[in-house]
């Protein structure tokens, strides 16, 4: 385990700006989703990515378009970072026919296979093997693609973690396991259910590299992820990256958060990944006005997506049973 | 929250969640071997089923588990077969799929395959059913799967009182019991008896008496059937009898038989998929046992053969609705009328 | 072992295992996306189903997996939804319980819950059924569970030819297919067509034509039914028609209906537990669709509601035997005779 | 990981002799079982423990009578070492009513709950959580008991390993995980499916001690296991012990063993645990005649068990459905 420092991976200002844009887009999207949910505009329940934007952003920036990711129940950020357009993404959260999954999936199942986004998943730990499978495809068909599996500090205790990392290591698959250690699994603090403090030590059990990274430091995330992804692409096998971050909101929107101290949450805002990126950009001479423009552009894009979603039709009830099978079956 | 508090004499209306806490806390006070294991249960559970337990019984007996469904179940099997009475919680029934090996190959088999040396007194509780756009991985019902596996008992309460009484019995039972709480009725309220209260396993309940047709159901579908019965009484003058099975294993066919013998017509309703659902077993048994004496084929209401879509209009189309029970009852009775008219009546006089 | 060898013109009698290897190797030669994953498959498989594949296709495509059932399945889902056509092997069907989350919550749901963006062309093969005292964890059959889950197709061949033809179709199918090989018939032999050979999913087969009663079955029970039919023809002069379903999903009710319409009597037989088994769905459907036209209630033969004991006399008592089919047929036809005698006949003339 | 040496744990001669007796009993029992199976006297299939006797023997010797063990599909040795009498054990393999499980279980499910032997198990990895559960019972009821989970080098790749060790560590349960690394899982050599060479490194992922031990050295096994068991009993939590051993026979009796070299197997006999114990005992002045007497006594005991089993009745078919439920249920 190495705690990689920012200094190892200074980014060009243009790169940092691009990452900043994505983080801001996720932030504003999620804030809006939160509002919409509380205003009862969105069915189901939603888990937002507020505070963790640097992880998806930095990791996906290091990927190529054909590469794969698997996501979690908290998947909007991953989708945006992998390039899913906001219109069909927002429409999916509304359950509209124009959504990425034609309204069948909703928040917990946003996906865009054409972009290698293999789905948010409502089963914790569901992505470990799926990512390994996508990496296997890449290896067997010589596609040169890498798969990234995002998962949480809660998910690391699922047996599927163990099975997948062992298998990926044996097969030297091009897959990178990215743990988003936001310190909580639902309402339970990590240390109450997890036997080790530094999660990346688990890499040693599979003979693969493990790194713990400041997941709110976009430069560190981008740097370490880039190295691990390159390594995977070179055929040198999987890595485990643990991104230390924090979940600002409740587990789901509406969570009363009786299990934690509001003050502790507020304190974490000092580590805010977006503010930290801003500070660097400003120090490098980027104008505050320019950053404001980035935020404004994101706001417009998000508002347009809301409009798009609102105006889109619901799926027709007569299509409810479509799509279960690729080769349809008449079942009596 | 205690059953002995000053509220004793007063209002005993409570939610399923509150009734569940009551059953659990009474059992835990009475027997130190009763423990609760599950993810996030310290914080009360999705429907408040565990609220206050951590405070009263502490973290030794109210164990917040890692996200490790296999081991929640396996630990429960190990503890149960060495003297404890664990209540294992999986918030949504879909997560039991990650523990099926432990449920099917260990919990259900331990007693039999070791020649009766041990028993496995555990309760596995999980929430099932459709609730407002929870989508494919949080909306389903698997009771047909559990009921098919020998060695498991399967409980599915429809009222808050039964939630308390059946859970208490499940905890006291010496066998593994799968206790299924439907999400939609989890926050509904009902009168709940005070203090220790047991409802036996394998004893169905007549939720409504009627003469014309028997609706066999359990869990949330009892509510739907009651709604349907009201409509049918008002609009069609049809008098529906509703059998709430309460438990699928053991299965109280005697009560079903008595009702069907009386009405001569049966409709079965569950929220799980119709195809291969528990209703198939019920329909097969009723058709066999009342052969030649039914006025119409046994009708079955259940979810369509699809997964649960997120979008509300689609969800409504896949999940069974109260109107489908109404419709099935009407069709069933129309069949008899038609059969009588054409001289094809099969039996009942 | 190749289909193009000199044996072409000669003997095409082979075991299920050999037929399976043939289907796999033909598919693997034709399409590099077909791969096989499972524990110990490099060494040929318990019934020789994989013999020679490692040698021909190498360890990249014939992957010996760790003892990690969850990930065998999850990797298959991931590979299938990104362009491969994996055949995942779990030697005994009981081990699929350790992968149920991946089977039910991922493989079966992927296509639907992502709005049809992807499909999951994988085959999950496993051996089921009773074989000489394999005891509770290696003797069971779970097809009712798989058939209940929307999104899975379920195949259960009864002959070596169907083993080849159905497996070939399952591999070519774009959906997840659960392919169940019964252990007892795994080493039995039959004539198998040469070269590429596909049997469509959802097309039942009349394994024996007859006039008096329809036995609906699949997998090993077809063999048992044939034995029973012989006895019944010889001893009772009863002419049994046997419908071999071949696939449970899709389910070919048209063939079942035609046969039952002809015979007016139905007996269903499977090796899985009778209670809540797939036979319940069949009995419910037949009872409904042939209401008033059956000479007797639909009879069901299946395992008793217990786990499989090790000791041979106990195993025989729990597992269904050919004699139980014989007995069920006799009872069914006796019912009709009795009903006619007492004027209670329900229909068929 | 520590490779503990023999010298750390010299045993008194009397202790070593006791261990020798148990190992010999297992050896002779298993050789006889093998013969009986090949002579078609035993139904089902059997997995024997030949070559691995030191592991069960050394570990169980360090346990107290009330302590628990969970076993595997290869469970006869564990049963004998935990004190199960040979008569009902052998009768179980015959499927007789006098068997430990009344003939319901057979070879793969031998158990004796009265001795804390919580069952051989046909599901690889089935014991991880069951042992943790038994340890939880001990902890919650203050029984002062320890649970040992035996499992194989194949089993270590099951997700249940990961889930159980994490949980056991979080709860500091009195449980010891004993891996019998016999180099094979069925027909597949360990290194083809397992990402690390030294399996005990996996302990680090759970913050618990891990030791790799020469599992054919009875003194080392007894010593290291004793330490770990004592530690667990003191409430200091679980350990992972990896016992390096070797499976002399095929995976099951009848296995053709096409996947390995007979010569490699023969070579392993130089490390034979029983012969090594004999060498030490002889060096310490114990008579060869005395050792022969031990072997003869075991042979007699085994023969008597065969006789017992042969003469016992099969269960009555009318009892086939008994015992599924503790509270019986009439299921139509
Ligand atoms: C298999 C499974 N078990 C339990 C749940 C319920 N659940 C949903 S999210 C969650 C916590 C996940 O925590 P973590 O992996 O840290 O992700 P985070 O929410 O913090 O992003 C749990 C327990 C689930 N969805 N799937
Ligand atoms: C869950 C599960 N998967 C697969 C099997 C089939 N199987 C039986 S024994 C075995 C190998 C076990 O290897 P190991 O754990 O090293 O134990 P050993 O046989 O070497 O003692 C396998 C794969 C099983 N019984 N259970
Ligand atoms: Mg988290
Ligand atoms: Mg081994």
- Read across the widest sheet of chain B, the strand sequence of neighbours is 3-2-4-5-7-6-12
* Quaternary organisation: heterotetramer
Low-confidence stretches of chain A: none
Question: How many H/I helices of chain B?
Answer: 12
Largest sheet of chain B: 7 strands, mixed
How many individual β-strands of chain B? Answer: 14
Q: Could you tell me the radius of gyration of chain B in angstroms?
A: 21 Å
Rounded average pLDDT of chain A? 94
The chain-level structural class of chain B is alpha/beta
Shape of chain A: globular
Helix content of chain B: 25-40%
Q: What does the model show?
A:
The complex is a heterotetramer, with two copies of chain A (332 residues) and two copies of chain B (349 residues). Chain A has 332 residues and is of the alpha/beta class. Helices cover 40% and strands 10% of the residues of chain A. Chain A has helices spanning 13-38, 53-61, 76-81, 86-94, 127-140, 159-170, 218-233, 262-268, 273-283, 288-311; strands at 2-3, 68-70, 147-152, 175-181, 184-185, 188-189, 210-214, 239-244. In chain A, the strands form two sheets. Chain A has a six-stranded parallel β-sheet, sandwiched between helices. Chain A has a two-stranded antiparallel ribbon with strand order 5-6. In chain A, strand 5 (184-185) and strand 6 form a beta hairpin. The N and C termini of chain A lie far apart (56 Å). Chain B is an alpha/beta fold. In chain B, 38% of the residues lie in helices and 19% in strands. Chain B has a seven-stranded mixed β-sheet, with helices on both faces. In chain B, helix 7 links the parallel strand 6 (153-155) and strand 7 (177-182). The radius of gyration of chain B is 21 Å and the shape is globular. The N and C termini of chain B lie far apart (53 Å). The chains are: A alpha/beta (332), B alpha/beta (349). Chains B and C meet through helix 4, helix 6 and helix 10 of B and helix 4, helix 6 and helix 10 of C. Residues 152-154, 182, 184-185 of chain D line the site of one magnesium ion.
């Amino acid at each position: 385990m190495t705690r990689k420092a920012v200094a190892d991976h200074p980014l060009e200002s243009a790169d940092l700006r691009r990452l900043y844009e994505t983080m801001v887009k996720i932030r504003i999207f999620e804030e809006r989703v939160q509002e919409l949910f509380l205003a009862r505009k969105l069915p189901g329940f939603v888990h937002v990515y507020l505070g963790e934007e640097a992880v998806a952003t930095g990791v996906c920036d290091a990927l190529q378009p054909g590469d794969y990711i698997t996501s979690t129940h908290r998947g909007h950020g991953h989708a945006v970072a992998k390039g899913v357009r906001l219109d069909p993404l927002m429409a999916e959260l509304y359950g509209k026919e124009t959504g990425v999954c034609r309204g069948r999936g909703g928040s917990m199942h946003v996906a865009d296979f054409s972009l290698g986004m293999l789905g948010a998943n409502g089963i914790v730990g569901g992505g470990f093997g799926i990512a390994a499978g996508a990496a296997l495809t890449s290896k067997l068909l010589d596609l040169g693609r890498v798969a990234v599996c995002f998962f949480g500090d809660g998910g690391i205790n699922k047996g599927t973690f163990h099975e997948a990392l062992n298998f990926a290591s044996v097969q030297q698959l091009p897959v990178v396991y990215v743990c988003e250690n936001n310190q909580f699994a639902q309402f339970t603090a990590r240390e109450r259910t997890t036997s080790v403090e530094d999660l990346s030590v688990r890499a040693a059990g599979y003979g693969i590299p493990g790194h713990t990274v400041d997941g709110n430091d976009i430069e560190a995330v981008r740097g370490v992820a880039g190295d691990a992804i390159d390594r995977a692409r070179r055929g040198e096998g999987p890595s485990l990256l643990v991104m230390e971050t924090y979940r600002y909101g409740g587990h789901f929107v509406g969570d009363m958060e009786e299990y934690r101290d509001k003050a502790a949450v507020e304190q974490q805002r000092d580590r805010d990944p977006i503010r930290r990126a801003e500070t660097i950009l400003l120090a490098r001479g980027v104008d505050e006005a320019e950053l404001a423009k980035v935020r404004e552009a994101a706001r417009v894009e998000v508002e347009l997506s809301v409009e798009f979603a609102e105006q889109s039709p619901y799926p027709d009830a007569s299509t409810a049973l479509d799509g279960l099978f690729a080769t349809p079956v008449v079942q009596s | 929250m205690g059953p002995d508090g000053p509220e004793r004499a007063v209002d005993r209306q409570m939610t399923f969640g509150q009734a569940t806490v009551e059953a659990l806390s009474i059992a835990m006070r009475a027997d130190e071997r009763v423990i609760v294991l599950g993810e996030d249960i310290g914080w009360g559970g999705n429907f408040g089923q565990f609220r206050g337990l951590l405070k009263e019984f502490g973290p030794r007996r109210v164990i917040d588990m890692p996200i490790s469904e296999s081991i929640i179940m396996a630990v429960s099997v190990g503890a149960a077969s060495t003297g404890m009475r664990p209540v294992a919680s999986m918030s949504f029934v879909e997560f039991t799929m990650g523990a099926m090996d432990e449920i099917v190959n260990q919990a259900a088999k331990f007693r039999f395959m070791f020649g009766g040396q041990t028993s496995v007194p555990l309760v596995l509780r999980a929430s099932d059913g459709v609730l407002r756009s929870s989508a494919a991985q949080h909306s389903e019902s698997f009771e047909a799967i559990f009921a098919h596996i020998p060695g498991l008992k399967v409980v599915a309460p429809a009222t808050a009182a039964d939630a308390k009484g059946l859970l208490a019995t499940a905890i006291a039972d010496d066998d593994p019991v799968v206790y299924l709480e439907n999400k939609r009725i989890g926050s509904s309220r009902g009168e709940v008896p005070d203090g220790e209260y047991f409802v036996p396993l394998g004893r169905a309940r007549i939720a409504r008496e009627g003469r014309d047709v028997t609706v066999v159901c359990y869990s949330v579908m009892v509510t739907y059937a009651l709604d349907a019965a009201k409509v049918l009484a008002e609009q069609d003058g049809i008098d529906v009898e509703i059998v709430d099975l309460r438990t699928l294993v053991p299965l109280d066919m005697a009560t079903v038989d008595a009702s069907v013998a009386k009405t001569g017509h049966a409709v079965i309703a569950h929220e799980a998929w119709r195809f291969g659902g528990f209703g198939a077993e019920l329909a097969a048994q009723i058709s066999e046992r009342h052969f030649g004496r039914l006025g119409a084929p046994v009708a079955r209401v259940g979810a369509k053969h699809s997964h649960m879509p997120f979008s509300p209009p689609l969800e409504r189309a896949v999940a069974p609705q109260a109107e489908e029970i109404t419709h099935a009852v009407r069709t069933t009775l129309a069949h008899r009328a038609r059969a009588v008219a054409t001289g094809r009546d099969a039996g009942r006089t």
